[in-house]
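Key idea: predict the complex, not the pieces.
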Amino acid sequence: MVGSVGNGLADLANGAVRVNGAGKAAALAEPLPMELEQPEAVAAAMAGEGAGKREIVMGRNVHTSCFAVKEPDADDEETGEREATMASVLALYRRSLVERTKHHLGYPYNLDFDYGALAQLQHFSINNLGDPFIESNYGVHSRQFEVGVLDWFARLWGLEKDEYWGYITNCGTEGNLHGILVGREVFPDGILYASRESHYSVFKAARMYRMECVKIDTLMSGEIDCADFQRKILQNRDKPAIINVNIGTTVKGAVDDLDLVIKTLEESGFKDRFYIHCDGALFGLMIPFVKKAPKVSFKKPIGSVSVSGHKFVGCPMPCGIQITRLEHINALSSNVEYLASRDATIMGSRNGHAPIFLWYTLNRKGYRGFQKEVQKCLRNAHYLKDRLRESGIGAMLNELSSTVVFERPKDEEFVRRWQLACEGNIAHVVVMPSVNIDKLDYFLNELVEKRATWYQDGISRPPCIAKDVGVENCLCGLHK
Amino acid sequence: MVGSVGNGLADLANGAVRVNGAGKAAALAEPLPMELEQPEAVAAAMAGEGAGKREIVMGRNVHTSCFAVKEPDADDEETGEREATMASVLALYRRSLVERTKHHLGYPYNLDFDYGALAQLQHFSINNLGDPFIESNYGVHSRQFEVGVLDWFARLWGLEKDEYWGYITNCGTEGNLHGILVGREVFPDGILYASRESHYSVFKAARMYRMECVKIDTLMSGEIDCADFQRKILQNRDKPAIINVNIGTTVKGAVDDLDLVIKTLEESGFKDRFYIHCDGALFGLMIPFVKKAPKVSFKKPIGSVSVSGHKFVGCPMPCGIQITRLEHINALSSNVEYLASRDATIMGSRNGHAPIFLWYTLNRKGYRGFQKEVQKCLRNAHYLKDRLRESGIGAMLNELSSTVVFERPKDEEFVRRWQLACEGNIAHVVVMPSVNIDKLDYFLNELVEKRATWYQDGISRPPCIAKDVGVENCLCGLHK
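Result:
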């Protein structure tokens, strides 16, 4: 195998790109210069994800070590070698996935699933075109599973089968894009309100949809500050309100007080002039199983709820569930004869495998299974928070959450190794079903050990995180 | 296994929904009424897709026979039975997929692929968060493969590695949504122009993005009518133009004349005040391999190209490739510390499996492999058109296309059996690599045989399709 680890920009700069083309390819409509470069050392490419290579570069096209596509040689004898190379790339890639999966703590993904029984379906191009409830002419779909899953979620959130509409989305972002779009179609001149700790897709939606958007302050916990919310809606009395309510914020896992949001709206004279979208990306599926938690339910005047499927449920690829009131969908629908289907989704073609993954897990675990897992996650999150604080590390855990926020580790290499999500001086671990006590101990021991070396000189000190999590949760030199 | 085939609305109406809950579930935070219904006869549910059940119903929530999620019984002994039932549902579902895959002609999906070597990766939650070119902290990703695939496509369309930006999307619709959004960010007051035969996602984008949108007439072939285009841009001289150019329309496979569109813009005084998005959902990947075809290339003043990955390439789930100029992306980007990544994608979380499927096929087939397949498809499409016309059935095939348009079969059951996409009096077959001569013969023989019975009474007659495909392609009583 000739070639070097592909580094696009460097190769171009060095004039080192090998071209396979014109001569051999006389039969082609137009010869395409095609690189022969292929990772010589796959392991090195994997290691290319290591420290020092990551940087946020605006407006530059940074090619990290990638696996270039290699044009097959005209000589068929090489096919065997080619297949072997691809197999070895994949085997090494798989090994890196195992390693990376083992050291994952920062993102709210349940990495613990076994969909072996569904591998047989990978041979099919399963596509749920258009509306889940209306057959299209394309027969290779999984609507039977999709609707089963949607029924389960609609019921979880208090809507009957003939009252809801929904679909399986590609991710939490699509759920937010859909919910906010429905809100805008219901109230075309509505203003979008969202707390500043809302997921960035909410603000992306405002920009995409050309909606006026007002950011609301948050409490220390990360919840929306309803006093600030009231001030701001009163300044815009004349326009309807479209509100994004967070059922678990991205960074702190804070749950906005839905009942207080509704009360604030009603007391401010908005009555029927509001639309609430609940972004339940992570917690939308956990909160129904938490005792004493406020209820997310369509029995209350909300318009839509979205939740991710690859987070608490666990799924090989991102996906989500979007549920809204059937009455809202007519505002959004347009009939498209081509598909023999109306289309009220954002994406017209939709992954038909995701609903089967979800259906499979819901059937296997059921309500009781999820409840057990939620309880385990909450217990383990408390364990992590307690042990962090025992070790002198500032940490916060919201009551309804399994997201433990703590002092950002000083060493970026450590952050990357454990795949922690960070913001300013804080980092977080989201305790998912795949995160057990053993894994937490492994992490904690490593953190405590490393931390001793980071601050051993006595000069550099752990950051103060009082402004992020409150004085009572900070254990810096000042607040200990 | 108790229960009946789940028909949600009917069950609710009959009060026949069995509830499993309150009593047993005292330990739950809140008992969720959970149905026990489960398909008794899975085959019947599969048959539930049969004729007569399909209808376009606006504003009603039509539950076709779905596989309801069944709450596991508290009694663990049932686990074995439960697993067996799920396995049998899946086995029967798989059988229906095999059958439906065999009788598929109408949608532009290549159903012929073998990704067995990638089944090992289904155990991982692979998520390419944010930008493909910038590492996020989440380590279980496939950017190495994604960037390799993007490089291949950028090169195919004439952009160097340091000149382009792109990502693997969830489908052709996301590509159009992205391309048009980039256009709008470059020209915030631009008007969107698209031929009336453009994919419906283009008009959806206009509505989502609150853009003024002008529909352009088409020629009989389905191509954009540049005379009408010129008239309409001249009426709106003061505003920049954002144009969707179709590289293969959905229904007729027509390729808009990109060079003529550019010439029209320049002659009408638009010079630098335009942005062209090329919707190459199907043909974006075929056209580079068609001799004498006009070139889609960034050497021309275009802004973005999108193509679907599940169409000509073939992929278990919908996906697509979006390529644009790097300089345009800064307009769209915003830095998001949470992901340690800027985010210029529509969906923040992205399916990490799709790039690996694409990478695998590109490597195996290469430029030459695709060229052979394109040529085979074009040959087979000609064969189909010729045989249809020999049989007295009106049909049209655009020069650069493998989409054969013909008289809509009278019987909806037949249309469904072969999964034909229809519009008004016409239907089409898209000849993909998975459609060989044997399959076409099978279809043709059945069509000719059935057709003889549809029109044997001498009273009903085949529809005239002259207004859809031109007098010269119609073989109705009047135009024979």
